[in-house]
Amino acid sequence: MNFFGAMYDKTMEWSKHRLAAYWLAFVSFIEAIFFPIPPDVMLIPMAMTKPQSAVRFALICTAASVIGGMVGYSIGYYAFDLVQQYIVKWGYQTQWDKAISWFKEWGVLVVFVAGFSPIPYKVFTIAAGVMQMAFIPFVLTAAVSRAARFVLIAKLAAWGGTKFADKLRRSIEVIGWSVVALAVIAYLVLK
């Protein structure tokens, strides 16, 4: 079965599309609010296929993510009662509780860590609004954190380039099914 290979091929095809940078911005923006897939899925292949534009792609990703983070913050600040049900419905309650406890303990530093955390970024943007974190420090910290993450990812992908893309394609089924197996095991163990 070539499930992950087909997805990989489609992603690589999309990364070369003339509107790819716009789609990258869109995915980065909505991921900071509600979308479950991180922009890395587009950023990495775009940086691998066009290494000379990797930093530009990372900055597009950063700007859109920070703007999306501001929207997420606003949702938390002004409309949390309306979206609270979705935190439970979409299975983010555990991550939500952890984010809130981190905000109480660490304040603005949590936003910096959130840029690199495996916990979905949207949880932190909305939590920052709920906790009524100071807006300017939130935006500045989010910008630094997201830029550091996306530039690092883009530079690594560009460094690997098309050679790495070819090697990754040959191993994508093993990698993909291994991640699925680890996720299932983690779910069963942590449940």
TrEMBL record:
<keyword id="KW-1133">Transmembrane helix</keyword>
<dbReference type="Pfam" id="PF09335">
    <property type="entry name" value="VTT_dom"/>
</dbReference>
<dbReference type="InterPro" id="IPR051311">
    <property type="entry name" value="DedA_domain"/>
</dbReference>
<feature type="transmembrane region" description="Helical">
    <location>
        <begin position="57"/>
        <end position="80"/>
    </location>
</feature>
<feature type="domain" description="VTT">
    <location>
        <begin position="38"/>
        <end position="153"/>
    </location>
</feature>
<feature type="transmembrane region" description="Helical">
    <location>
        <begin position="20"/>
        <end position="37"/>
    </location>
</feature>
<feature type="transmembrane region" description="Helical">
    <location>
        <begin position="174"/>
        <end position="190"/>
    </location>
</feature>
<feature type="transmembrane region" description="Helical">
    <location>
        <begin position="133"/>
        <end position="154"/>
    </location>
</feature>
<protein>
    <submittedName>
        <fullName>DedA family protein</fullName>
    </submittedName>
</protein>
<keyword id="KW-0472">Membrane</keyword>
<keyword id="KW-0812">Transmembrane</keyword>
<feature type="transmembrane region" description="Helical">
    <location>
        <begin position="100"/>
        <end position="121"/>
    </location>
</feature>
<dbReference type="InterPro" id="IPR032816">
    <property type="entry name" value="VTT_dom"/>
</dbReference>
